[in-house]
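2024-03-11 09:14:02 INFO queue: dequeued item TetR family transcriptional regulator, len=194
2024-03-11 09:14:02 INFO validating residues
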Amino acid sequence: MSRTKQQQREETMEALTATARRLFAEHGYGKVGLETIAQTAGVSKGALYHHFSSKADLFRHVLGVVQHDVGEQIARAADAAPDSWTGLLAGCRAFLAAATEPETQQIMLLDGPAVVGWQDWRELDAESSARHLAEALTDLMTEGVLAKRPVEPLVRLLSGAMNEAAVWLAHSPDPQADLAATMDTLTPMIEALR
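2024-03-11 09:14:37 INFO prediction written
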């Protein structure tokens, strides 16, 4: 059975994304060339340029996928919790735990802001992790667990604190120990909102 052109395009896109993600995570953005990505993915450079206009364009796509995946990890952790409050804490922990994963560290926290710029990085974050945080805080206010207050500034404050902690964890010589210390510090901060 022959594959349609659409299936071929999707397969090429998946191969490029998976290969670039692995190579960017292993070597960092600056040490990976488009030629290497294309060869490793088993596609021509022309096929790569059919999907992405530049290395930065490909990286932005990969960064969006990584941020989406982190957002999904947060949502799964929060959804598995017995209530909204422990869901908020589980989601925060899932975000910070992701910061201890080498792939997330390299792509999302080290290269991401430098390659796409802080504003684009924040927009991608707003579509994934920050969106889940806003939903969790809104639910807690609706349930009466948190006092009603403007959600957007609260999301920015908590997200900023956690993003800074995530970057710190990405540079930490002992991220697992520092993750525990970070959660021990973050939990009372969030408790103060009750």
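2024-03-11 09:14:37 INFO annotate: The domain at 54-192 is CATH 1.10.357.10 (Tetracycline Repressor; domain 2).
2024-03-11 09:14:38 INFO item closed
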